[in-house]
Amino acid sequence: MRQEPSPRRAFPRPGAPLAGPLPRQLWRLGPGAWRRTAHWAAGVAADLRRRRRETRLTVAVDILPLWEPLTGIGWYLYKLLEAWADRDDLALRLYGPTLVRAPGIPEPSWPLPAGPALERVAYDVPDDLVVGQRWLVPWVRRLEPLLVAADRNRVVFAPNYVLPRTFGLARSPRVITVHDLSVRRVPWAVRPDTRVALEARLAHTLREARLVIADSRAVAREIVGLAEVAPERVRVVHLGPGQLTDRSGGGPGAGPGDGRSAGGAEADGPSGRRPAAEGAGAQPEAGELPLPPGTPADFGLSVGTLEPRKNVPGLLAAWRELRRRVPDAPSLVLVGRYGWGIEAIRREVEAARSEGWLVHHGYVAPDELLALYRRARLLAMASFYEGFGLPALEAMHLGTPVVLADVEVLREVAGDAALYAPPDRPDLFAARLAEVLTRPAETAERTGRGRERARRFTWARAAEATAAVLREAAGPGGALRP
Fold it and tell me: Structure pTM?
């Protein structure tokens, strides 16, 4: 589920010299430029004073994952913010990879949720001050840790394992979410640079955290056993059903949020498609939603980044065996971008495509993914390791049969609503796939159990439980309001 943080490299660095013709530099020293500079500095100071007077529970939130195309952790953070947006007991300050807002500085991958509980902390840096943007932007960036600390948030929340340098001077209690411990359980399946970075920082972050959130009981036990965190500091908060969209309610967030953008309009994702929400109870018929071009009429589905941990070669081997056992077996559709360590995976994918039974779509928009879930004969996950298993929950939520790797966390999520097979036994996995396709009555019974089980997992519950952890970390004096 990890989302690789990389966009910080694209941001300006301190030390760039003031450039430009002499008349422009002299113009910056005029009285108008000094007045504008004083007004800008006063605005920065006023914002700091206002945030420090806040009486609600103030939480600094690292929102770096929202600067990438949204995958597991990005959706986790987005859905929590969406669910929290209208609360009156929280003041959530959202800090991106930089606090600077200026031309050339990247913005989030799509509009942030908005509401009275949310405030993105960012400072506009105009180009008509005594010091030009080329100098001012890098120096404001150097001051970002001081600016975050000056806001005096009562809790710091890291939704993606570790905190960036921007939070380094904040002394407030810290809450971090550890989505999985693949770096300890299956280090060979973690991208080398990510493994090195996490090994260097995760142990320190875990020691500093007042409370640690795990997506599942399985990961919580690993945090206690492998990371040696005291069990009384670990809290389990199950996730909601990923990025599902309820179109019947007029937009995302039927329940925990309304998907508004910063301007109050509905927030659209790539290609004008809205971010997702929970709620399969009133989903539209699949024919109303577009399937990605090239999708076969009859198919099974697998969703996830194509990387070693997902065991794509094992799944393809199982599907070949399935086609031998069931002559009219459906095609397989893979949804997910190529990750790292893809040489062998790409060869297997290309071989299966050349045989005519595999389609690889890469990253798809939320409504296309919803259509794929609803039209698929089944969902297959053959992963060696997972921290939660959002695709399994999403499929159950929509009434799609699931065949899963027999790993602890997937049994925690799916229970008796799925069929299981060891991820390193393609023959047994193929047998489970065939069972779904050839025993419709039993499959329908399991699918019904899956729908019922999936109702327990909602973003409203996840957001409320996470807010309770934040309040617990803050302690009795966390909020100034009585």
Answer: 0.83
